Amino acid sequence: MSVDDDPETATALRTIADEIRRAEEPSNEQIAAILYRVSDLYDPDESTTTQDIYLNMRNILNVKEHGGIRRGSEPE
């Protein structure tokens, strides 16, 4: 899928993402992250594909589902 460069759409999506993030509901951070990644499709300064976004978001949601990333110094 090809998306034309559209800086106005990228800005609008990022503005909406920022508003959602400020609402501080449990799932808002993930929704805002998805919107921000989708906005990269329209940003002429970004080089991303729909597949890149899908794989990135799938990974983030899988990590979240499994309780986050455990660091080496954190207890299990």
The total strand number stands at 0
Q: Strand fraction band?
A: under 5%
Helix content: 55-70%
Span between termini: 42 Å
The SSE string, one letter per element, is HHH
- Could you tell me the radius of gyration in angstroms? 15 Å
Helix count equals 3
- Number of folding domains? 1
Average pLDDT over all residues = 85
Give a short account of the largest sheet.
none
Cα shape: globular
Structure keywords:
single chain; 76 residues; mainly alpha; globular
Overview of the molecule:
The protein has 76 residues and is mainly α. It has one domain. It has helices at residues 7-22, 28-39, 50-65.
In brief:
The protein has 76 residues and is mostly helical. It contains 3 helices and no strands. 58% of the residues lie in helices and 0% in strands.
In terms of topology, how is this protein built?
Layout: H1 7-22, H2 28-39, H3 50-65
Helix pairs in contact: 1-2, 2-3
